[in-house]
Write a structure and sequence with these properties.
3 helices; elongated; 98 residues
Amino acid sequence: MENQHRLIKSYRDLNQEEIDLINKIKAHERETLKLLKEVEDHLSKQTLLNSGGDETPRIRMNFCQPFRWIAIARTDIETGFMAAVRAVAQPYNGPEAG
């Protein structure tokens, strides 16, 4: 449905500059999430390599919880990008909202 945002309360028409800026934010988000995937792949590789006899890396990884931290990073980064888009889109639910 074309222009469906007009049927949703608090949404507004964006100008071309705002659309371009949101698209730029979304592109950066995709690149940043690719980087996080590389970190996750690195951690998975570390886990496989550390399944041998030396306990030190396994102890370190259990103590440092890198998978927890990368999950926190992903959540916080996604939240940050959503906030940046919201800053540009400026949805409004105030008293004069339609």
